[in-house]
Description:
elongated; 4 helices
Amino acid sequence: MASVPEVNGPTVDPGVAEPVGSQSLAGTGPASRHGLFGRLMRAGVTSVGATILSHGTYVALLAAAHANATIASTISFLVGASFNYFVGRRITWGRKHRPHPIKETLPYLAVIAASGTLSIVVATVVQHVIGPMGLSDLRRTAVLELANICSYGVVFIFKFTLLDRLVFRHHEDHTPR
Length: 177
């Protein structure tokens, strides 16, 4: 359905009870239209996309480029985190405005740095443990990828909670951004 402009006011979508892109009260804005469960599901979908990109990069760097697991994990994490930030902030939390560098971007980077550090530490530790085993490239890649996937599963809940409650929380003001 097309948006209909109001005279002297914001653009309104007839199917939505509030102005499109407005900052709204907690629990009533576009990002929270379906509540916590809706945001969790949308975060899950965007994380799947980020995970496909990240793990595709990781496996390619490990298998094709024979990269060190720490370097491969770092590069692939940055690829996925970039996708997740730009797509996730729009789809999951309904953010359409330019991000505020102090209130949004820096806290996001802190959350991502913490979760990325965990993933990189896991890859590094697992590589250290399996190094003396003399695994073939295929087995080395499979073991490192399995460890990476496991760490991402744990990190998802930690990251979603921090992003939802701290970074993209809904303020109780109507100031457009």
